[in-house]
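Subject: for your reference before the review

Hello V.,

The reviewers asked for a structural picture of the protein, and I figured it would be easier to keep everything in one thread rather than splitting it across files. Below is the amino acid sequence we used in the manuscript, unchanged from the supplementary table.
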Amino acid sequence: MTAANIAQPPDSRDPGHSTLTSLAQLFGQTINGMQVQAIKIPLFQRDYAQGRHSQQARLVRTRFIADLCAALDGDQVLHLDFVFGDVVEGTLYPLDGQQRLTTLFLLHCYLAWHQQDQSPQPWHAFHYATRPGARKFCEFLTQCRPDMATENLSAWLRDQARYLPTWKHDPTIQGMLVVLDVFHEHYRGRGQACLDAAWIRLTKEQAIRFLLLPVAAQKLDNTLYVKMNSRGRPLTEFENFKAELEALLHRNPAIDPADAKVFSEKIDTDWSDLFWGYRGDDRLIDEEFMRYLRFLMEVRACPIRQNSCRLDRTKNLGAAKKDENGPIRTSIQRQGAGPLAGARERSAARGRARAGRWGLDPRTLARAGTEQTGPRAGLECRQSTRSRHHHGGPQRGRQERVVPRARRIPERA
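And here is what came back from the structure prediction:
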């Protein structure tokens, strides 16, 4: 799930038996007749992936954390869509949403380190079921009190006596350290008032919320997760881009929500059908769609200059027209006044000066069409003509008129 998907608000339709909540306020709520007392990541879940060093993971992490921090620093509410899971004997086992819940747990830990009250909190009961190292590391985070003035937070945590050497081989723990460093980079240097406001919005105002959908209430079981993860296909770059673009349209106050909704519908229906005829061998229209959108963006972003060569101004390309701002030159006229024209004029002037020093008349050279520049300017001129007469006239072929060579006068010192 990309940051753009996460930033989308949930559907306004009735979600069934889902519960709108936040991580801190989830504990103590009653789900399916049971009160949530702990969250435990089940056996079949993968490692924590948002802290990986791959380019895709870095992109998702950067955008997701930026959305989280923007919700806490501003006044908007961030919806994280659905989290699937079930409550068994007071423990929530999430089937889908592990990555988001783990990142939220790390955000709670980081902001809690800035608070004076370090007493145990209900959200501390966050565990990984089958990873003893990750479970111990989560307990370590809830009990330590880092030096928040340090530049490298993960290095401080690794330097503690309770940090076990074997944890460096656990990808989940290493990913958590990466995410904590990103949070620290964002909030380091902020005032205490800003940190307190972010903590209140996170824990009391539900600035970051999600919909918890119990699987048992939908008469489903764990096979749902197996099917979702074993038979699904990862999203392509174009699908991620499309989701981000739709999110930007919905968040832009200058765009009518009805127009944004029409765009979302068209790009998945009518426009896709239009581009389907141009699909490639991979039976995808991603590249074709992206090239067309890139062309539109470039045309839209191209600035319109006041003195641009437009059809309404340059019906006669050599003419200059006037408008309310005065005379307007076409691009062809501007070329004549450019640096290239100036260089040509200076070179021609040097040729005329040499011809004058050598005793030749520049006007004669000009009439002969032989004015040149450079070391041989004015020394020789040849003009070839073809006889117009086929019989009884001058000799057929080419005739040459030669300008006599001029003796070069040595320049005076």
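For the response letter, the relevant points are probably these. Confidence is low (pLDDT under 50) at residues 1-16, 313-337, 369-403. The chain is about 45% helix and 15% strand.

Happy to draft the paragraph if you're swamped.

O.
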